């Protein structure tokens, strides 16, 4: 099968862990060990990943040094860093015959999209309210509540096209495992002259992964996170895992913005357009999820 596997933030940083190089390396090693069996089983695999904590940390450091880079450049920087870590760990878990390559991926967005007027995508560390407001005032940031703390939020326009999709497909056709669309990809938009330039945004990784899966003709979209399945009644004492979701019966209002909604939306978009399967579940359960024995299976 051709599979697009999207690694959630837990692949690099589990909840409550410090953002250190050692922690990231340890978690990526576990991700590589979990994904390697898919590749050795003969599947063609494109791996995507998040970068929200990392790009936010770089932006915060920039702000403190008064030497700020735009978000598209910081996105490329984090994609290279995270892609290198995943590539290194996969290479260690696979035989030399299995080739792995990272591809910096530009994703086209529309700079006129309403998302640019309403930032919603959290990036970077979590602050207490006083610190968040001080950082926002000093740097012109928009901030919002995220869980029990406050974080910077930035525009997150929907992805329209993936510029390197043909190159990624060519690599997969030759059984090269590809790491791409890191952090949702590097956001670019057309100028009035038809050229491309980077924009201040972070694209949702799950929606970018769904678009990639459609463009590649993937047989399956895997959205891997740190919970076993989508839950009914999430956050309540009556929460229970959902083994199967059929897109025709889905009501997105059942999934709060701060929970699984982006993953469910991305899975629905892929399944509705292709008639193929998507699944949401824990990284360590990936083999069972592909076999249809774990996670939440999303079907037409």
The biggest beta sheet reads: 8 strands, mixed
**Which strand order does the major sheet show?**
3-9-2-1-12-16-17-15
What would you give as the CATH superfamily of the domain at 2-105 and 158-218? Acetylglutamate kinase-like
- Mean pLDDT over all positions: 88
In CATH's first tier, which class of the domain at 2-105 and 158-218 applies? Alpha Beta
Secondary-structure-based class equals: alpha/beta
Number of helices: 8
Radius of gyration: 18 Å
Label the CATH architecture of the domain at 2-105 and 158-218: 3-Layer(aba) Sandwich
Characteristics of this structure?
single chain; 300 residues; alpha/beta; Carbamate kinase; eight-stranded mixed sheet; four-stranded mixed sheet
Descriptive notes:
- The chain is of the alpha/beta class.
- It has a domain at 2-105 and 158-218: 3-Layer(aba) Sandwich (Carbamate kinase).
- 36% of the residues lie in helices and 24% in strands.
- A hairpin with a 7-residue loop joins strand 13 (231-232) and strand 14.
Concise synopsis of the structure shown:
By secondary structure, this protein is of the alpha/beta class. The chain is built from 8 helices and 17 strands.
């Amino acid at each position: 099968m051709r599979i697009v596997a999207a690694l959630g933030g837990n692949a690099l940083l589990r909840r409550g862990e410090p953002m250190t190089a050692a922690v990231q390396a340890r978690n990526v090693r576990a991700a590589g060990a979990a994904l390697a069996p898919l590749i050795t089983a003969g599947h063609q695999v494109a791996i995507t990943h998040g970068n929200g904590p990392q790009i936010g940390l770089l932006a915060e450091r920039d702000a403190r040094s008064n030497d700020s880079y735009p978000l598209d450049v910081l996105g490329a920087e984090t994609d290279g860093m995270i892609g290198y870590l995943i590539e290194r760990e996969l290479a260690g878990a696979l035989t030399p015959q299995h080739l792995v390559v990272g591809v910096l991926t530009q994703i086209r967005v529309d700079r006129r999209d309403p998302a640019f007027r309403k930032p919603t995508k959290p990036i970077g560390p979590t602050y207490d309210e006083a610190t968040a407001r001080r950082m926002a005032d000093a740097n012109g940031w928009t901030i919002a509540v995220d869980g029990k703390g406050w974080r910077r939020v930035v525009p997150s326009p929907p992805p329209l096209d993936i510029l390197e999709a043909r190159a990624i497909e060519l690599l997969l056709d030759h059984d090269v495992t590809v790491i791409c669309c890191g952090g949702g990809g590097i956001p670019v938009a057309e100028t009035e002259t038809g050229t491309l330039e980077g924009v201040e945004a972070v694209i949702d990784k799950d929606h970018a992964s769904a678009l990639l899966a459609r463009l590649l003709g993937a047989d399956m979209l895997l959205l891997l996170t740190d919970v076993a399945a989508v839950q009914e009644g999430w956050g309540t004492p009556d929460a229970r895992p959902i083994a199967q979701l059929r897109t025709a019966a889905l009501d997105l209002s059942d999934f709060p913005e701060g929970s699984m909604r982006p993953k469910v939306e991305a899975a629905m978009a892929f399944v509705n357009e292709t008639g193929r399967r998507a699944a949401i579940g824990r990284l360590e359960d990936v083999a069972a999820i592909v076999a249809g024995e774990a996670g939440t299976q999303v079907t037409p």
